[in-house]
Design goal:
The chain is mainly alpha-helical and 257 residues long. The chain has helices at residues 2-25, 37-48, 51-84, 88-99, 108-115, 119-143, 147-155, 160-198, 203-212, 216-244, 249-256. Helix 9 (203-212) packs antiparallel against helix 10. The radius of gyration is 22 Å and the shape is globular.
Amino acid sequence: MKGLNVVLGGAGLAGFLALGEAVPRLGLVKEEYLPPASRIGGALADELSDGTFWTALGDTLTGWAIGLAIASCAGVVAGVVISVVPYLRAATASTIEFLRPIPSVALIPLAVLLYGTELRSVLLLVVYASFWQVLIQVLYGVRDVDPVAEETARSYGLGPWARVRHVLWPTALPYVMTGVRLAAAVALILAVTAELVIGAPGLGQQIAVAQTSQAVPEMYALVVVTGLLGLLINVGARAVERRALAWHQSVRGEVAV
């Protein structure tokens, strides 16, 4: 089954590349707007041999990694505290529901005003967008704790943090991993968006420079890089999730299938 999926995936990718090569060459789209896939591939090869590209990639990954780490830690801590402190969840529910839907891009003027084009501007947007992904999943995970297990832990005299460690955390961990995986994708989107709009160093800035200088193949090549980066991040996050939840029924069932 896995071999068949690989073959089908490769065939789909080959078909997509063939379509990307044929459409501009047949005149369906002007080549100055959408170059053939071969030209984009050549531009990508040129980018890979350019030190500026690797510097920009490092800047993007730095903003992504730091922002994701801050958001994940803050989301887990805030979610656990809100869940275990009496009445705090009810007190914060309306505030969370008010702040969570605010698009992170709406904070771009604030980020520019506070930090200009520095890394901290990127981090502000990345952390804000990613934090809610983790926090909401933690809240759902804690809500899913078995009341019988909770009462049993209380009857055995376990304190609040012991109950968090032995009862709450194992139940919430699958939700936490899902939140971190979603946050990883959101963090990359916001990092590139911030670089593209604000002009902070990174792949987004390089895309903007290529677009303004009419270097269309190079622009598409950089867009392809961001797509590949998102794919690698998602695959890596799923691998970490499977490893962290090797004991969980969902992962054991997936492996068995």
